[in-house]
Amino acid sequence: MAYEKDSGKHEKLLWHQAFYDAIRLELYEYRDDLEYTFEHQLTSEPMRIDVLIVKKRKDVIIDKSIARIFRGHNIIEYKSPGDYFSVRDFLQVCAYACNYAANTPGVDYSDVSITFVGNRHPRVLLHYLTEERKYTVAHPAPGIYLITGDYLPIQILESPLLPKSENLWISSLSKNLRVDAAGVILEKSRDDKFRMYTGAYLDILIRANPKIFLEAKNMAKRLLTREEALTEIFPELRQGRAEGREEGKAETEEKIARNLLAGGMSVEQVARFTELSAAQVQTLKKGT
Question: Which of 67, 94, 114, 212 has the fewest C-beta atoms lying within 10 Å of its C-beta?
Answer without folding.
Answer: 94
